[in-house]
Amino acid sequence: MALAAIYLRLSRNEEQLNIDEILTNHRRALIKLAEQHKLTYDIYQEISSGIKTDRLQLNSLLNSLDEYDYLLVMDIDRISRDNAYAEQVKTLLIAHDIKILTPQGGIDLTQESNEMLYSFQAMLANFEYKQIRKRLGRGRLAAAEQGRWVMSNKAPLGYEKDENQKLIVVEEEAKIIRQIFQKTKERVSANEIAKQLDTLGWRSRSGKVLTTSHISAIRKNVVYYGVVQACRRVNKRVVDEVFIENAHEPIVSKQDFLEVQKLLEENKQGNYFNKKSVTRKLQNLLYCNCCGRKRYLQLDGNGTNYIKSCYYKISNNTCRDRGHKYLPVEEFVISKVKERKKDFEHVLEKMKSLDTTDEANKLIKQNDSLEKQLEKFYNRQKNLKIMRMDGEINKSEFLEMSEENEEQIKKVKQQIELVNIQLENLNSNDEVQRRLEINIKTLEEIETLEPEDCNTFLKTFIKKIWFSTNTVANHNTKREAPDVTIEIDWL
Description:
By secondary structure, the protein is an alpha/beta fold. Helix content is 47%, strand content 15%. Strand 11 and strand 12 (305-307) form a beta hairpin. Helix 3 (83-95) runs antiparallel to helix 4, helix 6 (190-200) packs across helix 7 and helix 11 (357-389) runs antiparallel to helix 12 (395-425). Residues 3-147 form the Resolvase/invertase-type recombinase catalytic domain. InterPro entries: DNA_bind_recomb_sf, DNA_bind_recombinase_dom, Resolv_N, Resolvase-like_N_sf, SSR_resolvase.
């Protein structure tokens, strides 16, 4: 009696239907077919997309073809929807003299007409798969336009889906998201935030520790200020995109989200976050005025805080700016910072009198500058298209440069949005006044602050502190030391 392999595959797209019922109907039909041809059989079944080639049950079947005379399937597309892989399977079936049986009829691959029929049906299956994917993609975008969450079966941390696929806030999880954004605004690194969340016992929905990669992804996810975003790709290129604001209740404000994006962008240019536990008030703020590199702090043999000598190489020459006692530098910087109290008080007084002209002018100038940048990037996009049409650049070069330019356009648009929000907030400046009052009070107590708290506070308005002893590090202790350079680069 001949032996047959029955292969049952349920498509991922059919999972929304009754899986058990579909498999049962297919199994009955193929078992009946095997009995009609008086075949004994083994059954292989799995749930997988027809386009995948690494299917466990199918590969197991193909590795055992020596044992079988027939392959029973509901249709050719159950074997594969990928043309190239379908041809590989066909070659294996011919080599092992396997005949295919389906409820619609048999296919003897030793006959040329049947071999062509198999290839034609595989080609149709591949075409049908692409059409299904296209329809699903369009349906997904249409659902996203209605503010429904269709990006994945699971809602992002902080949300759950209602019966209409709309996101609703889960307060117990939302507090984690707010903490991440708040700490980022305080310039705390992702690594330190992860440690703090672990200490608080806050976990992911599945109970796992939230890692730096989780935090990095959360900080960039627009869903948290109420956005539903979806796109359709063809050959890895975005051909259609949906971006719907106010689709659901935000967990953080749009302003907070954009401010965090600005901080993350700034951090690419330098170290703006506390990556280690802060033990000194000026930690991660001191930079060499000679070579521009960061200056590091250490304890000397007597336990005194010391700014290390600089030994960075510049154009094959080593910067040898001498080290210096740390405490006098800290005292000088703190004294300069305390002088800012008058500036804060002046701004607060102006705000209380609703005189926000200077701040508005500053934001308007910033907005004008950003608009010019945006226009420049738009012109660059037009030039790229002209260069492509004239054959000055090839397709891959055009796509690469175009995607990079579009990313710059996106960033500038975000900055423009932030400036516009800040302009709007000038008309309701209670929050700004509150922050200024907190800053003034903090300045009054700055000498009593713990190093980490003071360091966090200083980084809200100090970008860098340029320092140099203006002396080469060597063993000559009798020379006259020039005055040191200490310059503060304010934000």
